[in-house]
Amino acid sequence: RMRQDFITSANRRVTPNLLHSASAAAENDIPSTTTTSSSSYSKGGSLFPKQEVARMQQTAMDHVQAGEYDTALSIFQQILYMNLANYGKSHPATASSYHNLGTVHTKRANAAPEDSIEQLNCRAAALDCFQAAARAARDSLGHSHPNVAVSLVRVGFLLLQARHYNNAIVTFQE
Q1: Among residues 21, 64, 67, 166, which is most buried (max CB within 10 A)?
Q2: What is the mean pLDDT of the chain?
C-alpha cells in the first residue's frame, strides 16, 4: 500500500496517517508536519489562483499514487513556479513545493536500480529540493517550526544514504 507524503500549497499535510515521528516519517517518505495557514503570508493579488494550484496539487498527487513520477514531477515544478511568482522564495507554500519535489525525486530514486547513476541523480535532486524547502520554511516560519525539522530530517537521511555521515550528523543536530 502506497502512503502519501505531500504538503499542499496551503501548507496542509495530506496523508492517511497523521500520527508518527519525524524519523519514521523520513524513513518511510512521509513528512511529519503541522497545518499552517498561509493566508497571513499573502503579498496581495496572486498571479495564479489558489484554486488552480490546489487542483494541480491533487492531480500531481494522483500521478504519484499511480507511480507516474515524471508526470507528477512536471506538475509539481509548475506549482513551484506558480508559488514563487505568487509569494516569492520565503513562504510556506514555496517550502511545500520544494518539499513535494524532493519527495517525488526520492520516490524516483527508490524505483531506480540500486547504486545506479539514475538513483544517485534523483537523490541529489531530492537533496537540493529538501535543502531549499528547509531554507524557505526557516525564512518564513522560523527556525524552530516543525516543517523546518521535517525537511532537515529528510536532508539528513539522504546524506546518510550518500554516506556523508559527518554532514548527516550536523544536519540532524540542527
Answers
A1: 64
A2: 79
What global pTM score does this model have? 0.75
In angstroms, the CA 19 to CA 97 distance is 22
Are 136 and 89 contacting, i.e. CB atoms less than 8 angstroms apart?
Answer: yes
Tell me the C-alpha distance between 75 and 81, whole Å: 10
Cell digits for 71? 508526470
- Residue 29 scores a pLDDT above 50: no
- Residue 12: phi, psi to the nearest 5? -110, 135
DSSP state, 3? -
Most distant CA pair in the chain, distance? 46
- Where b means 16+ CB within 10 Å and e means fewer, 110-129 reads eebeeeeeebeebbebbbbb
